[in-house]
Protein backbone atom coordinates (compact mmCIF):
# COMPACT_ATOMS: atom_id res chain seq x y z
CA UNK A 1 0.00 0.00 0.00
CA UNK A 2 1.32 3.44 -0.93
CA UNK A 3 2.53 5.60 1.97
CA UNK A 4 0.34 8.72 2.16
CA UNK A 5 1.80 11.49 4.32
CA UNK A 6 -1.59 13.26 4.51
CA UNK A 7 -3.06 10.23 6.28
CA UNK A 8 -0.08 8.91 8.23
CA UNK A 9 1.36 12.23 9.44
CA UNK A 10 -1.79 14.28 9.98
CA UNK A 11 -0.28 15.95 13.04
CA UNK A 12 2.39 17.56 10.84
CA UNK A 13 0.51 18.20 7.60
CA UNK A 14 -3.19 18.56 8.43
CA UNK A 15 -3.41 20.84 11.47
CA UNK A 16 -6.58 22.59 12.57
CA UNK A 17 -7.38 26.20 11.69
CA UNK A 18 -6.31 27.17 15.19
CA UNK A 19 -2.86 27.22 16.81
CA UNK A 20 -1.53 23.97 18.24
CA UNK A 21 1.70 22.61 19.71
CA UNK A 22 3.59 19.92 17.82
CA UNK A 23 7.04 18.34 18.02
CA UNK A 24 8.64 18.03 14.60
CA UNK A 25 11.35 15.35 14.31
CA UNK A 26 14.47 15.46 12.17
CA UNK A 27 13.59 15.16 8.49
CA UNK A 28 15.56 14.83 5.25
CA UNK A 29 15.16 17.38 2.46
CA UNK A 30 16.22 18.47 -0.98
CA UNK A 31 16.80 22.21 -0.51
CA UNK A 32 17.65 25.28 -2.54
CA UNK A 33 18.08 28.82 -1.19
CA UNK A 34 17.75 32.31 -2.56
CA UNK A 35 16.71 35.93 -2.11
CA UNK A 36 13.92 37.91 -3.67
CA UNK A 37 10.30 37.92 -4.72
CA UNK A 38 8.61 34.48 -4.75
CA UNK A 39 6.58 35.63 -7.76
CA UNK A 40 9.75 35.77 -9.86
CA UNK A 41 10.68 33.42 -12.68
CA UNK A 42 13.83 32.38 -10.80
CA UNK A 43 11.74 31.18 -7.85
CA UNK A 44 9.53 29.13 -10.18
CA UNK A 45 12.62 27.59 -11.77
CA UNK A 46 13.93 26.57 -8.36
CA UNK A 47 10.64 24.87 -7.54
CA UNK A 48 10.90 23.03 -10.84
CA UNK A 49 14.34 21.57 -10.19
CA UNK A 50 13.32 20.51 -6.67
CA UNK A 51 10.40 18.55 -8.07
CA UNK A 52 12.63 17.06 -10.77
CA UNK A 53 14.83 15.61 -8.05
CA UNK A 54 11.91 14.49 -5.87
CA UNK A 55 10.27 12.59 -8.73
CA UNK A 56 13.60 11.13 -9.85
CA UNK A 57 13.80 9.40 -6.47
CA UNK A 58 10.14 8.39 -6.51
CA UNK A 59 10.43 6.78 -9.97
CA UNK A 60 13.78 5.01 -9.47
CA UNK A 61 12.40 1.45 -9.50
CA UNK A 62 10.89 2.10 -12.94
CA UNK A 63 14.31 3.22 -14.12
CA UNK A 64 15.96 -0.04 -13.07
CA UNK A 65 17.28 0.83 -9.61
CA UNK A 66 15.49 0.16 -6.33
CA UNK A 67 17.12 1.75 -3.27
CA UNK A 68 17.44 -0.39 -0.16
CA UNK A 69 14.33 0.09 1.98
CA UNK A 70 12.34 1.68 -0.86
CA UNK A 71 8.55 1.81 -0.54
CA UNK A 72 5.75 3.28 -2.62
CA UNK A 73 4.88 6.78 -1.45
CA UNK A 74 3.31 10.08 -2.41
CA UNK A 75 5.85 12.86 -3.04
CA UNK A 76 5.89 15.28 -0.11
CA UNK A 77 4.67 18.87 -0.54
CA UNK A 78 6.81 21.93 -1.19
CA UNK A 79 7.94 23.73 1.97
CA UNK A 80 9.69 27.03 2.60
CA UNK A 81 11.64 28.64 5.44
CA UNK A 82 11.36 32.42 5.25
CA UNK A 83 13.30 35.35 6.66
CA UNK A 84 14.11 38.95 5.76
CA UNK A 85 17.36 40.75 5.05
CA UNK A 86 18.46 43.30 7.66
CA UNK A 87 17.20 46.03 5.36
CA UNK A 88 13.87 44.26 5.00
CA UNK A 89 13.48 43.99 8.78
CA UNK A 90 13.85 47.77 9.09
CA UNK A 91 11.01 48.46 6.65
CA UNK A 92 7.51 49.30 7.90
CA UNK A 93 5.96 47.18 5.15
CA UNK A 94 6.90 43.88 3.55
CA UNK A 95 9.28 44.29 0.62
CA UNK A 96 9.21 40.92 -1.12
CA UNK A 97 12.51 41.69 -2.86
CA UNK A 98 14.14 41.55 0.60
CA UNK A 99 12.89 38.05 1.40
CA UNK A 100 15.41 35.30 2.14
CA UNK A 101 14.22 31.75 1.62
CA UNK A 102 15.10 28.09 1.56
CA UNK A 103 12.53 26.03 -0.31
CA UNK A 104 12.57 22.26 0.03
CA UNK A 105 10.86 18.92 -0.47
CA UNK A 106 11.06 16.27 2.23
CA UNK A 107 12.51 12.87 1.35
CA UNK A 108 11.69 9.43 2.82
CA UNK A 109 14.08 7.89 5.33
CA UNK A 110 15.52 5.43 2.79
CA UNK A 111 17.07 8.27 0.80
CA UNK A 112 20.86 8.33 1.26
CA UNK A 113 23.67 10.31 -0.33
CA UNK A 114 24.13 7.48 -2.83
CA UNK A 115 20.45 7.68 -3.81
CA UNK A 116 20.74 11.46 -4.18
CA UNK A 117 23.79 11.15 -6.44
CA UNK A 118 22.01 8.65 -8.68
CA UNK A 119 18.91 10.86 -8.86
CA UNK A 120 21.00 13.92 -9.71
CA UNK A 121 22.83 12.04 -12.47
CA UNK A 122 19.51 10.86 -13.94
CA UNK A 123 17.96 14.33 -13.88
CA UNK A 124 21.03 15.95 -15.44
CA UNK A 125 20.81 13.49 -18.32
CA UNK A 126 17.07 13.82 -18.89
CA UNK A 127 16.32 17.39 -17.84
CA UNK A 128 19.56 19.37 -17.36
CA UNK A 129 19.34 22.72 -15.59
CA UNK A 130 22.09 24.95 -14.12
CA UNK A 131 20.16 25.28 -10.84
CA UNK A 132 20.56 21.56 -10.17
CA UNK A 133 24.06 22.30 -8.87
CA UNK A 134 22.55 24.55 -6.17
CA UNK A 135 20.41 21.80 -4.66
CA UNK A 136 21.61 20.43 -1.33
CA UNK A 137 20.57 17.34 0.61
CA UNK A 138 20.39 17.86 4.36
CA UNK A 139 18.34 17.36 7.49
CA UNK A 140 16.25 19.82 9.48
CA UNK A 141 14.63 19.45 12.89
CA UNK A 142 12.09 22.03 14.05
CA UNK A 143 11.48 20.37 17.41
CA UNK A 144 8.86 22.07 19.59
CA UNK A 145 6.72 24.25 17.35
CA UNK A 146 3.40 26.05 17.10
CA UNK A 147 1.58 25.53 13.82
CA UNK A 148 -1.75 26.35 12.26
CA UNK A 149 -3.58 25.81 8.98
CA UNK A 150 -3.94 29.03 6.99
CA UNK A 151 -6.72 29.04 4.43
CA UNK A 152 -6.65 31.83 1.88
CA UNK A 153 -4.22 34.12 0.10
CA UNK A 154 -0.58 34.18 1.11
CA UNK A 155 -0.96 37.93 1.53
CA UNK A 156 -3.44 37.31 4.36
CA UNK A 157 -1.00 35.24 6.43
CA UNK A 158 -0.24 38.06 8.93
CA UNK A 159 -3.62 37.53 10.64
CA UNK A 160 -2.88 33.82 11.12
CA UNK A 161 0.57 34.64 12.46
CA UNK A 162 -1.04 37.06 14.91
CA UNK A 163 -3.26 34.28 16.26
CA UNK A 164 -0.21 32.03 16.59
CA UNK A 165 1.73 34.70 18.47
CA UNK A 166 -1.19 35.22 20.86
CA UNK A 167 -1.26 31.47 21.53
CA UNK A 168 2.50 31.44 22.12
CA UNK A 169 2.23 34.29 24.62
CA UNK A 170 -0.74 32.73 26.43
CA UNK A 171 1.14 29.45 26.87
CA UNK A 172 4.34 31.00 28.31
CA UNK A 173 6.32 30.17 25.21
CA UNK A 174 8.54 32.32 23.04
CA UNK A 175 9.52 32.19 19.39
CA UNK A 176 13.06 30.88 18.88
CA UNK A 177 13.55 32.75 15.63
CA UNK A 178 11.36 34.96 13.44
CA UNK A 179 12.26 32.67 10.56
CA UNK A 180 9.13 30.62 9.94
CA UNK A 181 8.18 27.59 7.92
CA UNK A 182 5.38 27.26 5.39
CA UNK A 183 4.09 23.99 3.90
CA UNK A 184 2.13 24.40 0.68
CA UNK A 185 -0.70 21.87 0.46
CA UNK A 186 -2.41 23.44 -2.56
CA UNK A 187 -1.29 23.86 -6.17
CA UNK A 188 -1.29 27.64 -6.55
CA UNK A 189 -1.73 27.24 -10.32
CA UNK A 190 -5.03 25.39 -9.94
CA UNK A 191 -6.54 26.67 -6.69
CA UNK A 192 -8.50 29.84 -6.01
CA UNK A 193 -6.64 32.16 -3.65
CA UNK A 194 -9.44 31.96 -1.09
CA UNK A 195 -9.06 28.17 -0.91
CA UNK A 196 -5.27 27.85 -0.70
CA UNK A 197 -4.16 25.70 2.25
CA UNK A 198 -0.81 26.43 3.88
CA UNK A 199 0.62 25.09 7.13
CA UNK A 200 2.37 27.90 9.03
CA UNK A 201 4.87 27.05 11.75
CA UNK A 202 7.07 28.82 14.33
CA UNK A 203 9.80 27.09 16.30
CA UNK A 204 9.25 27.84 20.00
CA UNK A 205 10.72 27.23 23.45
CA UNK A 206 9.63 27.69 27.04
CA UNK A 207 10.29 31.11 28.55
Automatic annotation (TrEMBL):
It comes from the Bacteria. Residues 18-199 form the GyrI-like small molecule binding domain. This is GyrI-like domain-containing protein. Coiled coil: none annotated.
Amino acid sequence: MKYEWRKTEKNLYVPKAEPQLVTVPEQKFFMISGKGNPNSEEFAEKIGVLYSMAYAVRMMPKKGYTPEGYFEYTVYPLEGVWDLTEQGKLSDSLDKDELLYTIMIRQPEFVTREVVDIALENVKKKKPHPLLDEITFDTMEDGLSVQMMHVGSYDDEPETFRQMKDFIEENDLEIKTLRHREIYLSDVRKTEKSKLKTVLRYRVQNK
